[in-house]
Amino acid sequence: MTVSRDVIADLVAEGAEVDRLVADLTDAEWELPTPADGWTVAHQVAHLAATFRMAATAAGRPALFEAQLGQMGTDFNAAIQAVLMPYLEGPRSELKAKWRAERAGAEQALTAVPAGQLVPWLVRSIPAPVLAAAGMMELFGHGQDIADTLGVKREHTDRLEALVEFITRVWDFGYHARGLAVPEVRFRFEITSPSGALWAHGPADAEQRISGSAADLCLLATRRRHRDDLGLTAVGREADHWLDIAQCYRGPAGPGRRPGQFADASR
What we know:
Blueprint: H1 7-22, H2 27-30, H3 41-60, H4 62-70, H5 76-84, H6 92-112, E1 118-119, E2 126-127, H7 128-150, H8 161-169, H9 173-177, E3 187-192, E4 198-201, E5 208-213, H10 214-221, E6 233-235, H11 237-245
Parallel strand pairs: 3-5
Antiparallel strand pairs: 1-2, 3-4, 5-6
Helix pairs in contact: 1-6, 1-7, 3-4, 3-5, 3-6, 3-7, 7-8, 8-10
């Protein structure tokens, strides 16, 4: 990745932020429904725990990961659902402990990957910092669902830099998720960081352009806010269409969020 920050260190910090959201929850709060249909706060944390365990295996035991990947079948969502279910068994104190352990395991395994070495992942092998950025995406999206449920306003930092770059790398995921042809265009992203710096990606002379804040881009691409509730702007017909379909994860897009579903205070 071309970001100037230590992506794995940022992953550690973001994980700690999400941990603080759930550290002192009551039993009743763990069972609160989140904006993701059918998922409670406990489901969100179980999904994160399962995902970080997969990342730890991919980084630390790649042959085992590839064997497990071969057993997942073609229904990726069903496979992910299956691996998170064991985390929901038992008291929520155990879930919290397992989530912390899986997160620590992934952080340690990613840190140990030699520079330049690829790590097997769901679609193709990728560098460890890119896998860490994918982990940032998981923390951002599921952390937002938890924050929305609890009525917590998140404070974003320049740790979003790796996630912003990740979004620009996988800009075509929204087309694939809907069975649409990927257009033969290049996008220019001009994104303002939480500290006010400009993060630019793509050709400077591109006709299709997207601009706005980093937090808004991340909320859009993780499908945690509708574009109508964000301050992103597009120049060009394809860029405008992209704001309707943007997502930075593989698999079905899902229904996303409705316009006006959340108060601005929870963004």
